[in-house]
Amino acid sequence: MAALSGSSSECCTLKKALNRLISNTSSSPRTRTRSEPLYVISLERYGRDADFALRFPDSVSMSESLFDATITDGDCKIRVSLDPAVNRLISVNMLHCGSVIRHVELSRGEDSASFHVCSLEVDRVSGGDAALRALSSVSVRAIPWMGAEPSAGPLRARRSSYLPLWNNHDFCGEMWRDTAPSEPDAEDSEEEIDEISLNSRNPAAQITIIPKNQISPDWVLPDLPHSFICGQELPSCPQGHIGDVIGVVIFVGRPERVRRKDGQRSEIEEYRWLQLADRTSDKPIMIKLFSTSQPDIQSRIYPMALLVCTRLKLIRSAVDRATTFEYLTNTSLTQVYCTGTGSHPVMPYRGIRPIRQFLHWLKQVDESSLLERAVIGGYFGYPPLPVSLPNFMENRRGEAGLISGGEMKLECEKLIYREKRQFAIQCVITAACYHHREDSGRTQYSDLPSAPLSPRVRRQREGSEPHRTPVKRKLFSSTSPRKRLAPPLQPLATEDDAERDFSLFDGAMEFLVGEQEDDSNDEDEDEDFSTPPSSPMTSRLGLTRVANETLPRVFCYERRHVQAVAVGLQVNNFHKLLPQRELESFSPASCYTGYFTLTMRALSDGVMLDVVFLPAAPGNLHWMPLPLSHNNSWESILSHGGFSPHAPPPSPADLIATANQLTNQRLLCVLDACALGGEKMELVLNRAFPLR
């Protein structure tokens, strides 16, 4: 085969590598690029076919998918298939559109005209925006192909089109076209019609409206095509009720993924939380919308849009016997209409009474008040968990029980991009830090879990300002826990500092090195609360700073399309790619005032967990506290997930001053874990129940 020709320069990295490959006459030729960077400008997925096991016998259990990529060096580009061995890098979003790759090993395809990537190295040192910077002066679409332009279909399987990158349900791409519905059969079109005439007079017809609860099943009445329910009616609807809703979107959550098990198989489903406001209730209508229903619309739902969802199923969750929460989710018949998406033009429910009433309210509503509540993205946990340990454990019947720190670390390493999972683990809190909104709302987080430190070395927080003297407090001391701890405030810390950045640093020497109490009466008690010794090699999991993806953002109507991409899942084409810090250009929502970071130690094996805690507070319409009063102690706040709704919340300074409540306190912690991409693992504390 002749060497490849084209308009690319002679120093083109791809051209030189492929010419070496073509000139290699061995039975299975391969070549590897050197340290020159290559850039991934598209990534496309498709399902494997029946020949997969023959082509990749060592990768049968790795993935159900195959991937093609377009790579460039800036002078030319080529589309290649990727070996299933690199699928894991894609599934955790370490290899993605915009990645810089080096030392790429290439081989010839089966038809001798295509090329296959056997292995590669992702350059994580150059930064996430290296490809954007390197290709900023060229038109990526105008970069010439190396050789002939490839076909539009997949390279390694007998498939006619590609799938979405992150779900299996959105088949509305460029390769798909709408087709007219088929003509109904003559037998199906001949339906029996009964005509009923109602006299207006001589004699006048009498019409009686029968309430729903008086309709007998023996009448076998057909189901109504639409049954709209409002927010006020949701609490009185039975579990599993099927209904329709209409409202103004005031919250669109970030897309997340969850693993659903169906028999022997497990499939990843994409979903996002929505909140709708209607005229009837101060509480928003909660919807957990999966991508199984019109995912092309789901990705384009913005706050302040008018949304109609039909045939939703009501799910009810109980916090205690008297407190329940409801949300709606998809059924197989759910349809979605959202203004601004240009879809679903036929609305047969337009003229029915609930719709007319809602539209009448919409004309009179104060739009600015709704805009103030409009939020997009960020962590959102719903429905609320029970506030007592017995109720929580009862609700977990059939689910995995408590796990050790090492087991949790292994399970988190299995999570794929944006997959969310909940864990229950026994811990003690060894350190805490409060970060005020002004210090951390838009700034750094740690890209990697911080390195474990010796228990005798004070921990340096990443991103801390060198000129600030934080307020420090030991959560535990080497003295008896019954002794009063020293006041937390230091003379060098100003009052402003105390409100902005509170820190509780490691100080539990008897926990870390296994020292015994001097008081013999406390010996048994100390054994119960002891944890394994720590060492500089102790495993660690989580982030020491809140991730940008964790914070909810103020909705920006003027930049709503950019904001939706910034909040959404990783894109698969270079022309959609945004800088990694684009999300930071949108201000955190007013519901976010700050956060706690808690350092926890697993009781089972000493694994350290860096956890974010976002307590719900009175007046917060996004993270609303439970309607249950408590005394705002640390124990109550952690078990309720936030502050009491019937009392002013304590200031962070007050909480730090009472941190001795956590001394030697064993906790059963419920953690929400979400893989944010690469090695970023978000851990958010949902509940922490004291163990007696």
UniProtKB/TrEMBL annotation:
Compositional bias ranges of the Basic residues kind: 469-485
Provenance organism: Cyprinus carpio carpio
Designated name of the protein: Si:ch73-71d17.2
Region (Disordered): 440-497, 515-540
GO molecular function terms noted in the UniProt entry: single-stranded DNA binding
Listed Acidic residues bias regions: 515-529
InterPro entries reported for this sequence: RADX
Pfam families given in the database record: RADX
